[in-house]
């Protein structure tokens, strides 16, 4: 513990208040050069505020920040950058309509005669992309054409371009898919060996086990403990974060097999090059997962079912009746009764500046109507019911939803749809970037919905979630359902194998594999998958 | 949002305060010139309200479009077209025809913005120019009747129980708009689309219908204002709407409506309208030369917006 040189980063008695709420209180923290330092805690524990203070985005009310033992005060992120602090935030900071090269050099482009030297800029982008192992990304393509996972890699390349001494990764891997995660691990380790301090926020325990040397746990704005990662078990760490025991993260699955006619049946759904001949049925009371690598058509499938995509071929039957769903307005109303929890809650799920109440009722205004007017009393009661049911932490529902923590925001999105009493619930990665406690509540909610007779279609990038929640999992690969896993077949081995369209040498249940019809080994294709099929679409 | 009318948010308070300052400054001027405090007499104030009602109608309609994050630059010639066609037809059909024209132009604007996805600034500017051309065609060959009907004249200059009819029309239209904004699903949808169209769409709100409805409301309001303006000056004429576009936008924005949509109260728009009308009136009473009036007018608008930004705090 006692080193002669002062730690690279030191915080003492740092506090920050927002209104009456203590986001941080009296936090002391030390980070040493050449280490990966994980920062853990539920959403709202103060991690993000802490990172923002270190990055100069937010100024603390009290306390001191020291770098190499010298006190510093950051007036802006620029000051922090000058001290060698770079950060990669959860909200990606890339400009979609600029090229990758432009984005990487956006704050300090190489100049010649006062003008931007495009050639040097491109060379710089190429070098940095190579450093993060993404030589396949063309530096002149536009950021908006990249899938989320690749954007995150560009974001990391951009941060490396500033030669940081302290690099903050806030949920650095939450948007990443298989191959990119490995690349990030390698980069993070290399940076540590080069003497960089990495502050690493993550909700994935196995990731922290793999990477972090030290961990600091936060709860309710206070620093609980800092320890060497190996010194504590997962259970102990989780208990520190939530302050209570989590016995089972997932609620028990349904015992009996599905019964009755399917509520939703899909036959030969095809769209552009992204969905090919997708067929499946969804029964009341079951939770069906969509597995596979990200970008294999799961998102498109959900959007196609919800009527958002144009030019979808194939048949969709609701309660056995063929339906052409022309858009969300039709999808949500009777007799279909569908709901979609979209991928990005901030741009697709919520009207951020509007109140919690207005967001909760946004999809159900026609239900709350009396004559041509909104029934204010019914509205108030509905909002109250939803806030209570989902345990949304908010003191006044007239508060803008942007003031809530990420987990509570996601609860508002879910509440909006539950108020409409859907029978078919489509979910696009609903727990991304959400703390453990809220995740658990969402799992329970899904099961409750299913038990009440709804059918849930859940896409998740987190295998544990698919294993823990789903009664069946459809494995998607290049827009096709290649396997259906059921019951005990749903385990990590099968999920990984299915994601790469491989069948295991000794499959635990070969019969189920025949379902998808294409469970043979296809070497060339799985290689392509490893490079990330979406990246090659650029 | 449901408190859009009764709450006085900071921009509204600021506008109200500025109205008082203008009145007091004007009165100080007239008193110092040896006259009476004419600006504070009920007669003067009612007359100003009457003039404000024309601008207020236009601004109210425009606010619906600005709340969506769009803009309607076709207002001047929508207004002129409606007035010119109404007077050309004359008789009892005049005003209904004008409103129908306003509605039709609004629907065309809405279709272009919602379905063709042309930026509203470009599309409505194009429509404005097309309408101008159509009016030149219409009046070019011969001299159509341009006399305002008695009903138009009454709505613009008549009095009911001592109150100007124009003000009553303004109040009636305002009541409808306030109810729409605060009490109906449409109003909620307008704010939702203005804040985040994608999220509103994925919530199953018919965003295209909302856009078209708002442009139609804006067109109808402009057409009604056109009829009343024709009544006020006894006839419709080319270019009669040209002077109203910028003041209307200014009234909406000074009243605190976010130019990018999603936020704003109707109260603010009303106060913004009154502020602009009073400012113009006081400056002209002070016998400020036209050039000076323009400069002060522009500076006040900029100053108000800056003050509002500081007071209201802005995101995005």
Key attributes of the depicted protein:
heterodimer, A: 538 residues, alpha/beta, Rossmann fold, 3 domains, six-stranded mixed beta sheet, 19 helices, 24 strands, 24% strand, disordered C terminus, B: 316 residues, mainly alpha, ABC transporter involved in vitamin B12 uptake, BtuC, 2 strands, globular, disordered N terminus
Describe this structure as you would to a colleague.
The complex is a heterodimer of chains A (538) and B (316). Chain A has a 6-stranded mixed β-sheet, with helices on both faces. Chain A folds into 3 domains: 234 residues, P-loop containing nucleotide triphosphate hydrolases (Rossmann fold); 188 residues, 3-Layer(aba) Sandwich (Rossmann fold), CATH 3.40.50.300; 78 residues, no CATH class. Chain A has 538 residues and is an alpha/beta fold. Chain A is globular. Chain B has 316 residues and is mainly alpha-helical. Chain B has one domain: ABC transporter involved in vitamin B12 uptake, BtuC. Chain B has 13 helices and 2 strands; from the N terminus they run ααααααββααααααα. In chain B, strands 1-2 form a two-stranded antiparallel sheet. The two termini of chain B are 19 Å apart. At the A-B interface, helix 10, helix 11 and strand 20 of A face helix 8 and helix 9 of B.
Biggest sheet descriptor of chain A: 6 strands, mixed
Low-pLDDT stretches of chain B are 1-6, 312-316
Low-confidence stretches of chain A: 505-538
User: Outline of chain A, from the CA principal axes?
Assistant: globular
Structural class of the helices, strands and pairings of chain B?
Answer: mainly alpha
SSE order of chain B, one letter for each helix or strand: HHHHHHEEHHHHHHH
Number of strands of chain A: 24
What is the strand content of chain A?
15-25%
CATH superfamily of the largest domain in chain A: P-loop containing nucleotide triphosphate hydrolases
- Counted by DSSP, the helix tally of chain B is 13
- The share of residues in helices of chain B is over 70%
Q: N- to C-terminal separation of chain B?
A: 19 Å
Average predicted local confidence, pLDDT of chain A: 82
Architecture (CATH level 2) name of chain B: Orthogonal Bundle
């Amino acid at each position: 513990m006692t080193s002669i040189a002062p730690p690279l980063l030191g915080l003492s008695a740092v506090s920050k208040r927002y209104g009456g709420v203590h986001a941080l209180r009296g936090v002391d923290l030390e980070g040493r050069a050449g280490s990966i330092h994980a920062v853990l805690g539920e959403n709202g524990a103060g991690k993000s505020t802490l990172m923002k203070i270190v990055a100069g985005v937010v100024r603390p009310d009290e306390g001191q920040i020291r770098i190499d033992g010298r006190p510093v005060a950051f007036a802006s992120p620029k000051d922090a950058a000058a001290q060698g602090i770079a950060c990669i935030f959860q909200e990606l900071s890339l400009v979609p309509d600029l090229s990758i090269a432009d984005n990487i050099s956006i704050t300090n482009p190489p100049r010649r005669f006062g003008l931007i030297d495009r050639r040097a800029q491109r060379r710089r982008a190429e070098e940095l992309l190579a450093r993060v192992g993404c030589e396949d990304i063309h530096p002149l393509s536009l950021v908006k054409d990249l899938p989320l996972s690749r954007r995150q890699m560009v974001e990391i390349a951009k941060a490396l371009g500033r030669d940081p001494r302290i690099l903050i990764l806030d949920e650095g891997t939450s948007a990443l898919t298989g191959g990119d995660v490995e690349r990030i691990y390698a980069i993070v380790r290399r940076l540590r060996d080069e003497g960089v301090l990495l502050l690493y926020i993550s909700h994935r325990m196995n990731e922290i086990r793999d990477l972090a040397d030290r961990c600091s746990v936060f709860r309710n704005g206070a620093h609980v403990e800092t320890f060497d990662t190996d010194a504590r078990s997962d259970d102990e760490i989780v208990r520190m974060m939530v302050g209570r025991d989590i016995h089972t993260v997932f609620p028990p699955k349904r015992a009996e097999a599905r019964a009755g006619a399917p509520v939703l049946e899909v036959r030969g759904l095809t769209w552009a090059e992204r969905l090919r001949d997708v067929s499946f049925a969804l029964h009341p009371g079951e939770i069906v997962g969509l597995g596979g690598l990200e970008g294999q058509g799961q998102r498109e499938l959900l959007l196609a079912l919800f009527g958002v995509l144009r030019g979808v071929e194939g048949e969709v039957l609701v309660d056995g009746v063929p339906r052409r769903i022309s858009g969300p307005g039709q999808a949500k109303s009777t007799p279909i009764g569908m709901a979609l929890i979209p991928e990005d809650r901030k741009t697709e799920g919520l009207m951020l500046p509007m109140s919690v109440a207005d967001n909760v009722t946004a999809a159900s205004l026609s239900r709350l109507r009396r004559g041509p007017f909104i029934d204010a009393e019914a509205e108030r009661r509905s909002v109250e019911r939803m806030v209570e049911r989902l345990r949304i932490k908010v003191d006044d529902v007239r508060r803008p939803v942007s003031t809530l923590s990420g987990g509570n925001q996601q609860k508002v999105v879910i509440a909006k749809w539950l108020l409409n009493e859907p029978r078919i619930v489509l979910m696009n990665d609903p727990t991304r970037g959400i703390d453990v406690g809220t995740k658990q509540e969402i799992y329970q909610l899904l099961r409750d919905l299913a038990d009440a007779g709804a059918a849930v279609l859940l896409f998740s990038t987190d295998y544990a979630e698919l294993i823990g929640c789903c009664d069946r999992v459809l494995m998607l690969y290049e827009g096709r359902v290649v396997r259906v896993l059921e019951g005990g077949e749903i385990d990590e081995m099968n999920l990984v194998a299915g994601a790469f369209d491989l069948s295991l040498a000794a499959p635990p249940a070969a019969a189920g594999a025949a379902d998808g019809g294409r469970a043979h080994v296809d070497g060339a294709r799985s290689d392509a998958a490893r490079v990330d099929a979406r990246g090659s679409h650029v | 949002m449901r408190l859009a009318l009764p709450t006085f948010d900071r921009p509204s308070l600021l506008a109200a305060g500025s109205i008082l300052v203008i009145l007091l400054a004007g009165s100080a001027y007239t008193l110092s010139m040896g006259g009476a405090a004419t600006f504070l007499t009920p007669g003067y104030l009612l007359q100003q309200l009457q003039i404000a009602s024309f601008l207020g109608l236009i601004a109210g309609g425009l606010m619906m479009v600005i709340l969506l994050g769009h803009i309607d630059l076709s207002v001047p010639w929508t207004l002129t077209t409606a007035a010119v066609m109404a007077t050309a037809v004359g008789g009892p059909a005049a005003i209904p025809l004008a409103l129908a024209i306003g509605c039709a132009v609004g629907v065309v604007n809405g279709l272009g913005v919602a379905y063709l996805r042309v930026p509203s600034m470009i599309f409505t500017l194009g429509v404005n120019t097309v309408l101008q051309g159509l009016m030149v065609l219409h009046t070019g060959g011969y001299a159509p009747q341009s006399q305002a009907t008695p009903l138009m004249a009454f709505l613009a200059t008549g009095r009911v129980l001592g109150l100007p009819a124009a003000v009553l029309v303004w109040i009636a239209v305002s009541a409808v708009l306030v109810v729409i904004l605060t009490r109906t699903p449409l109003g909620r949808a307008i704010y939702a689309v203005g804040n985040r169209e994608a999220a509103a769409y994925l919530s199953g709100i018919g965003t295209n219908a909302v856009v078209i409805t708002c442009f139609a409301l804006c067109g109808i309001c402009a057409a009604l204002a056109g009829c009343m303006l024709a009544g006020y000056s006894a006839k419709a004429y080319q270019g009669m709407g040209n002077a109203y576009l910028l003041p209307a936008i200014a009234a909406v924005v000074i009243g605190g409506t976010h130019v990018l949509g999603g936020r704003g109260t109707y109260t603010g728009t009303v106060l913004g309208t009154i502020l602009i009308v009073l400012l113009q009136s006081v400056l002209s009473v002070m016998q400020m030369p036209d050039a000076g009036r323009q400069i002060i007018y522009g500076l006040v608008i900029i100053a108000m917006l800056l003050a509002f930004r500081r007071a209201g705090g802005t995101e995005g």
